[in-house]
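README, section 4: Worked example with a bound small molecule

Sections 1 through 3 covered apo chains. Here we extend the same pipeline to holo records, where the ligand is supplied as SMILES alongside the sequence. The molecule in this example is zinc ion. Nothing else about the input changes; the structure line simply encodes the ligand pose together with the chain.
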Amino acid sequence: MVIESSEAERISQGDAAERINLHSVFCGFCGYNLKHGAVIGRCTECGRAYNARPMVMKGIFQPHAHSFPLVWLLQTCVALPMGIWIILGAVSPVNDWLLILGTITAWLGLMSGATAIRRLRLFIRAVRVHYRVEREEDE
Ligand SMILES: [Zn+2]
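The generated complex, written as structure tokens:
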């Protein structure tokens, strides 16, 4: 009998859904303790899906998964003003190559800024969850 990989995945997922978390694992979004809950399921507090299988750990709080996005913030603080400065210097007299260079630099700065904001939000959420997990471990 040949079992296709999707079939095997479905069987193992179904199997894991029936298993129970024997140790404390915490929801990655709200920090709720999922101990005694299904290995794969939805957080009973915030409703987010999670998978606590050891090789997956999706939606599960992991203490060092999100670090402060210092490099992204620095990159934004350098590239964005530099790009704008190059563009302003290339306007009169008009210098096509400097305009292109300035636009690319400013664009990189904007993209770094977007990444920095996204990672900063993840970092702030991880800190919040971390405090909740710490409080619960003290009890
Ligand atoms: Zn949750």
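What to look for in the output: The chain has a mean pLDDT of 89. The longest strand covers residues 40-42.

Section 5 describes how to batch many such records.
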